[in-house]
Amino acid sequence: MTDTTMTPDLCVIGAGSAGLATAAGAQQTGADTVLVEKSRMGGDCLNTGCVPSKALLAAGKAAKMDQLASKYGVGYGPPRIAFSDVHRHVHDVIAGIAPHDSVERFEGLGVRVVQAHGAFTSPRELHADGVRIRPRRFVLATGSTAAVPPIPGLAETPYLTNETVFELTELPEHLIVVGGGPIGSELGQAFAHLGSRVSLVEMSDLLPRDDPELVDVLRRQLLADGVGLYERSRVAGVAPQGNGVAVDVERNGGRERIAGSHLLIAAGRTSVLDGLGLDEAGIERTNGRLKVDARLRTTNKRVFAAGDGAGGPQFTHVAGYHAGIVIKNALFRIPAKADHASVPGVTYTTPELAQVGLSEAQAREAHGDRIRVLTWPYADNDRARAERLTDGRIKAVTDTRGRVLGCGVVGAHAGEVIYPWILAVQRKEKVGGIAQMIAPYPTFGEVSKRAAGSFYTPSLFSARTRRIVRLLAKLG
């Protein structure tokens, strides 16, 4: 590319979820926008994250439908898993969504796309393959990549991450997963459903950031699916073994070797910040992420950050939220601030696990005993009973006045059931609105109304209420 200089209103570095949302929003509001991307459009979410993992989970769920159908009195033979067709399904889903994130679509919107590596050469200038870009504002949206922990022997041992596991065309015979967070739990269960033997190793407890009572429901299901769980276990080392791998695990004061065919590292994410010339731009980092203020400005006030590198939960929906905050600040000079208190998270296992706001433990830490815990089991929900999906529960936390502090759901469709609680946490509302809503019957969402209504049970059915009713009855 010949040397040229661009002077747009906004230059966005990174074409993942945050960068694409920012570039599209900025261009459509009338800002001249340049988008710089060195690799694939769509970033991790489209190519190696949310989209392929959910497609694989859908295939795994289909593989287990015969077990659920038998509870309905419907019988058919065990499934035939053609893993090469599963691979094709996953990549067909990616291909179907890719045009929405493509260079062609964004150029059609008027965004100028530079397909090259970009790096700052000064606080106000970025170079990308011979192109000098001097915008009014920058947005760093370079995302994250799979974290690789310093495990002895890993450098000499073949392993997968979420960035390579979806390229498999043959089903692993025995997949060893290191990491029991959302990625490890989802992919481990998906491969177990498709017929792999799976061992999952987690140095803490399964899904350590979620409510232990809710996680236990998922734990029981993973064990029922045949997943070997090694919780509170340390990976002491890995090594090649024949055509597969060996993993040495320490737990309960002992040591055990697990032999498998494939090794998947799912030990979290790390921000992509190297090679960007951050020092030349006067942009500081902290704890592996960009140092930003509440308005998502970096230490160079002309440069904003959005997505995984900006702090906060590393979710695609947070990337979209950040894009809105950045556009308000960078283009409209509205001092909007990012608030992650009402950001929901969902682990898309079977059953799903969703959380928004504070968990019970977090609420007790912040408010002591001045909280109320409201629960309702799926087993008391008629729709769950009709569909034989009763293994789950909802658990909401309020203060003593009924203001919703948080909610967790484990069970079928938890990612949808959590919706009214997201709004309640975001608006700092009391539980009464959910308790009084007219919920369609029969739906899984009724568990929200039942749990919310339980806040009023002690007072509604108290001795005082009975006395009032008897008094009113005497008045005719």
Automatic annotation (TrEMBL):
Keyword Repressor carried by entry: no
Keywords carried by this UniProt record: Disulfide bond, FAD, Flavoprotein, NADP, Oxidoreductase, Redox-active center
Cofactors named for this entry: FAD
Pyridine nucleotide-disulphide oxidoreductase dimerisation domain boundaries: 343-451
Domain FAD/NAD(P)-binding as annotated: residue spans: 9-322
Cited InterPro entries: FAD/NAD-bd_sf, FAD/NAD-binding_dom, FAD/NAD-linked_Rdtase_dimer_sf, Pyr_nuc-diS_OxRdtase, Pyr_nucl-diS_OxRdtase_dimer, Pyr_OxRdtase_I_AS
First and last residue of the signal peptide: none
Alphabetical list of Pfam families matching this protein: Pyr_redox_2 (PF07992), Pyr_redox_dim (PF02852)
Similarity section: Belongs to the class-I pyridine nucleotide-disulfide oxidoreductase family.
The protein, known as: Dihydrolipoamide dehydrogenase
Species in which this protein is naturally found: Rhodovibrio sodomensis
